[in-house]
Amino acid sequence: MPTYDNPLFMPAGDRAVVMELGSGIDPDLNALVHRWAAMIEGAQVEGVVETVPTYASLLIHYDPLLTALDDLEEALLTLDGAEHGEGEASAVRNVVELPTVYGGEHGPDLADVARNAGMSESEVVELHSATDYLVYAMGFSPGFPYLGGLDPRLATPRLSTPRTLIPAGSVGIAETQTGVYPVASPGGWRLIGRTQTRLFDPRANPPSVITPGDRVRFVQINDAGE
Amino acid sequence: MDSVNAAVRVIEPGLLTTVQDLGRRGFQKYGVPVCGALDAVSLRIANVLVGNRESAAGLEMTAIGPKLRFERESVIAVAGADFTPLIDGRAARAWESARVPAGATLSFAPPNDGLRACLAIAGGIAVPPLMNSRATDLKGGFGGHEGRALRGGDVLPVGFSPHLDAAPKRLPEAISRQPTYSQSFQIRVVLGPQLDRFTETGIAVMLTSEYTVSIDSDRTGCRLEGPAIEHVSGADVVSDGSALGSVQVPGSGTPIVLLSDRGTTGGYTKAATVISPDIGLLAQAMPGAKARFAAVSVEEAREALIEQERMMGEIKSFVGLDLSGAVSLSVDGADTRVTDADGGAITAAPALRTARRAARRVSATLEGERFDFEVEVGIA
């Protein structure tokens, strides 16, 4: 497991510090990142404004008028105690089911993905919806989950010419990644389907139905409109 | 809305005018950007001058200011680039509060120095908050006024202010000079967090070269043109968090300093981070301005910030507006006046450096009867 013995702290200016727990993309390392994020949030560490967990590290935004970096690092390391043992329990994360219409007008590139993989469209759908994808991190745009766990057989290159507008809820594949667009945006992902679930609503609290560390499952449904 | 005591109508929107406060915090883990005024200190000063909370929402204007009609009398202040406020065509001073009569038009002469200014209106822009902030997220299309820059015909709600009758406010003499956003400036950085992804030569080039502010800069980032900062091998990292001021170096080797509208995470290497007291310089930099990086330690950066906050403290106590109205207390539905322990007006929060929370004795008087409270004052 690519986890360090001790967290590495690297300042990101005077208001944030990177807490790196390991390197690379690894589900166990990422679970540790999310455990730390939960611990820091729960402990209400003096001066911490918010914490952004990603693949192998956390970016801890803090107020330097309330804490000096040395004191903050010390306070964070003292959290690393009893909670560390509860790893197995917290490995059971929330699974967010996204009802998804595959193919047709909602997944115009499903045929291309199937051709690229050398299988039928229904086999692609079966494989894609058989996995619980880990939400390693969120970012890029509000409510956008970085998902891991795509079956390597489904890996497909991006479109050579990106679309100018992809509707919100579009489910796509780009190289070895799969993802879902929370808001309409341009993009070059191969679109295989679309979920009706509204992933991001700025008026809701929390604004996102997905939280980093969750798992996402795409559940095939038929297009109600047909 | 009964808390609204004025409204402002947009006649001309200006080049890029948005509702901004000090940003949206607590939701970055969901990918929600911070946004907020790029030159945050200017917004804070403008707010102090009109008696608002420092974090109240104002308008950030860019290069060409808006033209606004005030439906009711109000008090305004402008800080940042030297836009001259024109009230029914008559010039008023920036960095001071000014009264705008009901029905008057506020417009701006374009700046000679700097790019952006913040307009504070007494009571604050009272658009509904989203995720605890009124900042506009232009890319996300939410927050502020309908999630977008202002357009002609928009009407902005303005909150209640108890300070409409206050005497005009200005800055203390020592601070009152208009800052100069020079054509050639230095920005201080803390090296890292991904210092090891750059060659020694690359970092030396970054710290000794002159960079030109690109016309392609925006609220997301200030793009700098100049000598490439050399990577050890490639510009990609596994996506991680992006800080305000991150000096992101993509494959081209030319740096982009990330600002308020940055994405919360990114996949490019970050050579350094501009310290928070110097972000305003980048917010004000005109395309073509020349910037140099200078490395400082985290401790030096913190001292610079404490110095900035000392200046803010001086401004707040000099302006000395009665902020008692910002503290509301009602007993059985009747509003009562809130004072400090000596019966005096509350003018400023306790010095930030000494305490995050301070216990204060507060008393309220209701129909002649006095009530004493021990109140913990937190700084938001």
Model description:
- The complex is a heterodimer of chains A (226) and B (380).
- Chain A has 226 residues and is of the alpha+beta class.
- Chain A folds into two domains: 3-90, 2-Layer Sandwich (Gyrase A, domain 2); 95-221, Cyclophilin-like (Cyclophilin, Beta Barrel).
- Chain A is built from five helices and 13 strands.
- Chain A has helices spanning 27-43, 69-78, 87-90, 110-117, 121-128, and strands spanning 3-11, 16-22, 48-53, 57-62, 95-102, 133-138, 145-148, 163-166, 170-174, 177-180, 185-187, 190-195, 215-221.
- In chain A, the strands form three sheets. Chain A has a seven-stranded mixed beta sheet with strand order 7-6-13-5-12-9-10. Chain A has a four-stranded antiparallel beta sheet with strand order 1-2-4-3, covered by helices on one side.
- In chain A, a hairpin with a 3-residue loop joins strand 3 (48-53) and strand 4 (57-62).
- Chain A is elongated and about 55 Å long.
- In chain B, a hairpin with a 6-residue loop joins strand 16 (246-249) and strand 17.
- In chain B, helix 1 (40-49) packs parallel to helix 4.
- Chain B is mainly beta and 380 residues long.
- The chains are: A alpha+beta (226), B mainly beta (380).
Helix segment tally of chain A: 5
Distance between the termini of chain B: 25 Å
List segments of chain A where confidence is low: pLDDT < 50 over at least 5 consecutive residues.
Answer: 85-89
CATH class of the largest domain in chain A: Mainly Beta
Number of strands of chain B: 23
Q: What form of chain A results from the Cα inertia axes?
A: elongated
| Major sheet summary line of chain A | 7 strands, mixed
Structural class of chain A: alpha+beta
- Kindly give the count of domains of chain A: 2
Strand order of the largest sheet of chain A: 7-6-13-5-12-9-10
The CATH superfamily of the largest domain in chain A bears the name Cyclophilin-like
Distance between the termini of chain A: 48 Å
- Summed up, the domain count of chain B is 3
β-strand number of chain A: 13
Q: List SSEs of chain A in N-to-C order.
A: EEHEEHHEHHEEEEEEEE
Average of the residue pLDDT scores of chain A: 92
Beta content of chain B comes to 25-35%
